[in-house]
UniProtKB/TrEMBL annotation:
Residue stretches spanning the membrane: 6-28, 49-74, 135-157, 164-184, 234-252, 264-285, 340-359, 371-389, 415-436, 443-465, 511-530, 542-564
The protein, known as: Phospholipid carrier-dependent glycosyltransferase
Native source species: Iningainema tapete BLCC-T55
Keywords: Glycosyltransferase, Membrane, Transferase, Transmembrane, Transmembrane helix
Record-linked InterPro entries: ArnT-like_N
Transferase is among the record's keywords: yes
GO BP term, pick one: protein O-linked glycosylation
GO CC annotations on file: endomembrane system; membrane
Keyword Transmembrane helix attached: yes
Subcellular location: Endomembrane system
Alphabetized GO MF terms: mannosyltransferase activity
Topology versus the membrane: Multi-pass membrane protein
Top-level taxon: Bacteria
Length: 685
């Protein structure tokens, strides 16, 4: 593959796309501001309560932006395979595959990772290029979070929900702990759900308006989530079938819609189809060319057609709730509900309550609800639930030997992120339910504001828990911290509070600043709205021209650069605090041509260095001979071998005693505890 994944090539490509967009849009004459208001359904002035919701969720967004700019990434999957793959792409300027995620290594899950679709990782890698580090690398996830909120809001209004309920539902979905915790990770479940919901919205919008631009947006969004996650094939099939049924129903009813010339329709259809194939098909075609299977190592059987693979789908299904969960087993229910309480909280419970209350008034309301769309969403929700229940890894994950546990584990909570698409549909149905039941608006807004505050609290607490459990003292996740705190309050409240503050450490100041900022902004907005206006016209929110747009632009650019420099400095401090001195050691003691060999580690990303100067190679021993392994390392110009942190399943590997033997050919030069961090061993001269 041509090595063209560079900053210059990306800028050139983006310039071409920009010029193409100008060419397409130039013949169209319209008021851009009016078009934006129409698209966002804000033609009518915003009420005070709506302004409060917008202010609250915007404040949460700003706080999340600061968090992702200053907090280093700590979650397991991101450090294990998302970020290392991106780092290698950045080094090679090409979409290469990492050996450890493609070749037989005894880990049948890792062997498949090299064949995942990686559209979202490509987008995130773009943020390596201007900074030459991982500053703002998860910024696309913040955009996906916003897209999810907008899609839920617009879809709710499209079905017929009142605007304020649609805004509240969007806010509740965005602040569910499972959702908001994905923003500062490289997990792809949030962007997957965002484009799934956006695709659904554009599909319904096309069904109502017959506008070809919407079929283009539908197909493009479809391509995006197909290229983000391989399970998107099933989700895409659902949307296509549902839209097809709605279109057949429209034809049978012979309704009158906006007339569109066939030429214009087919132009947009072809353009959208090309985007679908490009965005959604790239990785599957690449896999087909490389290994003869669009899904990598997964064995595919369609009727009499069999595409061979080493990984059987039945083995994947065996990790799902459908296979493991036992309805008659009380312990399974206890684990499921315990995780749900921690990771769903008030936003999900309130939305579920609205759906239950909606049943009482179903069909009796005279509101402008599109019941055909509502029924479609309910059917879709049921089908999504079925897909989630059968999704691999929703119940358990593999063991060291490749066998599967027979009981549901706590990983069921981590797998809730696979169901974010369901949460978005639940939010839409809840907004419609609130409209039908005419739920008190002030109560709905109060719940939305509280959910925003809890979203901030959850984001900070869960991040601290991740850092503590993964890099420091193995105290467990956020649920363990919460349980210990509650238990301590019963016996010794003062000691429990001191222990909690000790766990939070330096993050206590950030926690106070974030919550204080949110409360001040919301209360200030409420005070100003009560004093100065009843309703706000959005078009009046622009900066007056008398201030001088050029001056304001210059000031904003200056503030932006100041903020970037400040947050980058804080991120450096946080990296050292969380990752230890690994970056400093690499920068001080290793030259760019010193290759690092690694094995038995889920944090190989850290070995690339802060600025990705080191080449990192997967170098386990493929024989029982130490001398043979040493020869292999020297042939690859390996000067340092990195391992750890070690998991229980790694303890029996033959390389560990070779590295730790004081009389052997390796000298430890960095790190102390393989249970919590990584260690470097230099090959003796």
């Amino acid at each position: 593959m041509l090595k063209q994944f560079t900053l210059n090539a990306v800028l050139l490509f983006e310039l071409i796309i920009f010029l193409l967009g100008l060419k397409i849009c130039s013949p169209v004459k319209y008021d851009q501001w009016r078009a934006l208001k129409n698209a966002l359904r804000i033609n009518q002035p915003l009420s005070k309560l709506e302004i409060l919701i917008i202010t609250a969720i915007s404040s949460v967004g700003l706080i999340l932006l600061h968090c992702l700019a200053t907090q280093p990434i700590v979650d397991y999957d991101s450090l294990w395979y998302h970020l290392p793959i991106m780092a290698r792409w950045y080094q090679e300027a090409a979409f290469v595959r990492l050996v450890e995620f493609t070749q037989p290594t005894g880990d049948w899950i890792a062997e498949q990772m090299g064949y995942y679709p990686y559209n979202w990782e490509i987008l995130c890698t773009l943020f390596f290029m201007p900074f030459r580090e991982d500053f703002l690398v998860t910024f696309p996830n913040l955009i996906a979070w916003i897209i999810l909120g907008l899609a839920v809001y617009l879809l709710s209004v499209e079905v017929g929900a009142k605007r304020i309920y649609a805004m509240a539902a969007s806010t509740l979905v965005m602040t569910i702990p499972t959702v908001i915790l994905q923003v500062n990770t490289l997990h792809i479940d949030l962007p997957f759900a965002s484009f799934f919901t956006a695709s659904l919205y554009f599909g319904l919008l096309y069904n109502r308006t017959n506008s070809p631009i919407n079929i283009f947006m539908f197909l493009t969004s479809l391509g995006m989530f197909l290229g983000i996650k391989s399970s998107g094939v099933g989700y895409a099939a659902l949307l296509v079938v549902l839209l097809f049924v709605l279109e057949i129903r429209k034809l049978l009813q012979r309704k009158s819609y906006t007339s569109v010339t066939k030429t214009k329709f087919f132009n947009w259809l072809i353009f959208g189809s090309l985007c679908l194939l490009w965005l959604g098909g790239f990785w599957y075609v690449k896999n087909l060319i490389d290994v003869g299977n669009p899904l990598g190592h997964v064995r595919i059987q369609l009727a009499n057609i069999i595409i061979p693979g080493t990984l059987d789908l039945n083995r994947l299904r065996a990790t799902s709730l459908a296979y493991i969960f036992e309805p008659q087993n009380f312990s399974h229910w206890r684990i499921l509900f315990k995780q749900a309480i921690v990771l769903f909280q008030i936003p999900f419970l309130f939305m579920a309550l609205q759906i239950v209350l909606m049943v009482r008034v179903w069909g009796r309301s005279r509101s402008k609800i599109r019941f055909d769309y509502l029924f479609t969403l309910i059917v879709l929700l049921i089908l999504l639930g079925f897909l989630y229940w059968n999704t691999p890894y929703t119940a358990v994950t593999y063991t060291a030997t490749g066998s599967l546990p027979s009981l549901v584990s706590s990983t069921v909570g981590q797998a809730f992120r696979y169901g974010i698409s369901m949460f978005s549909i639940i939010g839409v149905v809840a907004a419609v339910g609130a409209t039908l039941t005419q739920t008190r608006e002030t109560g709905v807004v109060a719940i939305a504001l509280l959910s925003c505050l809890l979203g901030i609290v959850n984001h900070v607490i869960f991040y601290i828990a991740r850092v503590q459990s993964a890099f420091k003292t193995n105290i467990g996740g956020a649920s363990v911290i919460a349980n210990n705190f509650i238990t301590g309050l019963k016996s010794n409240p003062g000691e429990a509070i001191i222990q909690l503050m000790d766990v939070m450490g330096d993050n206590l100041l950030d926690f106070s600043l974030y919550t204080g900022f949110y409360i001040v902004v919301v209360l200030g907005t409420y005070y100003i709205s009560c004093k100065n206006f009843d309703r706000i016209n959005v078009s009046n929110l622009f900066i007056p021209r008398s201030l001088g747009q050029l001056s304001v632009t210059v000031i904003l650019i200056g503030l932006l650069f100041t903020a970037i420099n400040t947050t980058r400095e804080k991120r450096d401090i946080q990296r050292t605090e969380v990752y230890g001195g690994i970056y400093k050691y690499i920068a001080t003691n290793l030259k760019p041509n010193d290759h690092i060999g690694y094995l038995l580690s889920n944090r190989s990303y850290l070995f690339y260095g802060k600025n990705f100067n080191q080449k990192v190679l997967f170098t386990p021993s493929y024989s029982e001979s130490l001398s043979q392994w040493l020869n292999d390392l020297k042939q690859q110009n390996i000067s340092v071998v990195a391992i750890g942190p070690l998991e229980p399943r790694m303890m029996s590997n033959r390389e560990i005693p070779w590295l730790q033997n004081p009389n052997g050919p390796f000298t430890p030069v960095f790190g102390q505890d393989l249970n919590l961090g990584s260690m470097f061993y230099r090959i003796k001269a």
